[in-house]
DNA sequence: ACCTGAACACCGTTCAAGT
DNA sequence: ACCTGAACACCGTTCAAGT
């Protein structure tokens, strides 16, 4: 069980008045814009503040430092991603294995692909953080959903569900990321996605009841 | 075919005298040390120079900027990795598919794992770079070796070798990376590696002659 | 309760001066 | 041919003063 994020990375205060909620939202939006434009190299606190229409000081009221800002942005993104995966798992409880695999790959792939530029920017930005806590929290939350789904499959029995789950999710998430990094073409991506599904299915066929 | 790395990232000059070759080597070594100690956040030119026992100015004689230094370090690492993969492919030319898969996974996994801390530090450092050129050059070089190997398999016929190759390497490289990011335990890693092999074999079984 | 922006310390980078 | 290190611009962060 992962603890809370390192104190230095936690938001300084939670916005209470609606004015400040707007401010924080503007800061997040500005951060994405700046990241998309110039990547982490050009992500300066001044630039983010300027784009968000606030002063640097204001930014520092909500985030103790630049890293915390990027950290919070990624936490937000991973939270949304986890929610989508959880929904998919709920929808496919008790379904046959083949459908589960397809649904999982589809959800993850779509989530990462629909805003490829944002995905890429965040992949890069999160690398610079002490992201262990972030990754662990995400992994644990999503693993819970996917293992439950797998365990509920109507046409399979697993001697070791966590193990099968680990293989499945590591391969899927890793492959998607690597595809991004290689910058595969749309055609290559389509073929790859199909082959990934084939592989996962072939693996899971071992557990067919 | 990828062009040369962006001019801004290329080494400024190649060391000609042995004195300067030693200097460059010391700078590389210092960079790794500093990266291992504090990650990219604490990688300052002053610290690297100090640790290498030279002045900042000297560092800037060989690398036009900090990014170029990190770039060169990763280029070096990827070059060595590619060479190892090429060797494995050469050794397994004409072998049965199953052995190829096992050898490829073994080589890659071992290369990444034997110095896990360095691997982790480099994974993170390369994310901050304009690394497209670097990644493409590596991918192209390694793809050439692996596709050739696959095509030579004594017990398989591929309708589309590049496609099978893409599936294979993306899944393998991606999985290894993701395993690193999740920080899997040694036992989990062992199981995962076995399952990854199973998956790849099951996929390739489709092409058995 | 929230915002501002000048001020400070530190880092990346340069270049005139050295061997 | 190679090295030095003070100097400069810029960025992260703070805090006294404001609404």
Automatic annotation (TrEMBL), chains A, B:
Keywords associated with the record: DNA-binding, Transcription, Transcription regulation
PANTHER family per the UniProt record, alphabetical: HTH-TYPE TRANSCRIPTIONAL REGULATOR BETI, HTH-TYPE TRANSCRIPTIONAL REGULATOR RUTR
Organism: Roseinatronobacter alkalisoli
Ranges of the DNA-binding region feature: 44-63
Coiled coil location: none
Location of the region described as Disordered in the Swiss-Prot/TrEMBL record: 1-20
Record-linked InterPro entries: DNA-bd_HTH_TetR-type_CS, Homeodomain-like_sf, HTH-type_TetR-like_transc_reg, HTH_TetR, TetR_C_15
Domain HTH tetR-type, first and last residues per copy: 21-81
Keyword 4Fe-4S: no
Transcription listed as a keyword: yes
The name this protein goes by in its record: TetR/AcrR family transcriptional regulator
